[in-house]
Amino acid sequence: MAEQTAAILARAADLTAAGDPDAAVRLLRGLLATDGDNAEVWCRLAAAQLEADAPDDALDSAGRALRLPGETGWAQRLISLALAELGRRGEAISAGREAVRAEPDNWRAHIALADCLAAHDGSLPEAAEAARTAVELAPDHSRPHEVLGQTAERLSDRTTAERAYRAVLRRDPRSEVALAGLRRLASARPELPPAVPVTTRHAFAKLLRRLAVWLAAGSLLLILAGMPEPARLLAWFGLALLVACLAATGAALRTFPPASRWRPRRWWQGSPVLALGGLAIAGAVLLVASWTLVLALDVAATRLLTFALCCATVAGMLGVLGSPHRTRRRRT
Description:
Elements: H1 2-17, H2 21-32, H3 39-51, H4 55-66, H5 72-85, H6 89-102, H7 107-117, H8 124-137, H9 142-154, H10 158-171, H11 176-186, H12 200-225, H13 234-253, H14 272-296, H15 302-321
Helix pairs in contact: 1-2, 1-3, 2-3, 3-4, 3-5, 4-5, 5-6, 5-7, 6-7, 7-8, 8-9, 9-10, 9-11, 10-11, 12-13, 12-14, 12-15, 13-14, 14-15
């Protein structure tokens, strides 16, 4: 049984590394049916769920692992990463500190803590210190040097940043983080490191806000242009507004993580605020489409645009309220 479990865990790790975390999740859930008291299985499941952009599920799985003996440090690290993905920064930092206390000699614990701390400029010095500890513990790994380079660059410590980035390239000559960092440092007008990768929840909140602006502004303009009675020609402008929204959605989807890009049910990641925002924006789109259709049939229905304006406004507000803090790149 132990050999079979080890083989499945290795296969799940390979699937996750190959970019197919959903297959790894399915494989590990099957294993839990016969080995549900194995903390390593729960941790591996949580890691796969993080890569599948399902932090709520990952938080639950890591919590189950924490209640079992054997993988306390790993479970705390995964909890920290999941909480950071959900925008719960304070709790993420607390879990990261617990992970370091549980495994003070594990460089991944220090990097997880550094990632959480680096999400806020005021915590950058502590983040840099955590990254330095990780470098001391694992000098041959590129990731600690990457994090140290990024935090040092944001602290305007160009010497440390350049040294760290060059250390990365000695270990991983194709590192995009290091190559981009050195280009910024060599630039006549240096910039801060780019924003960290967008999570699905953050990307969806941004999409809601963008569509809300388009639909609210467009609906208001159509209402004003159609006073006192809308001309049939305005139906073309209604269609143009819908096409613009479609184009904006397509552009925004390119920023979504690949694992969730075409899976709408994952976009709000358990956030009821964003779920309501999605319903509101869908309602606004349907109302504008209905107005366009009935006006094309030479029937005035300005109230539909009024309702669309209200729905878009509500969606924009929910998009702001439901937007989480952006988080650092995760590592399990």
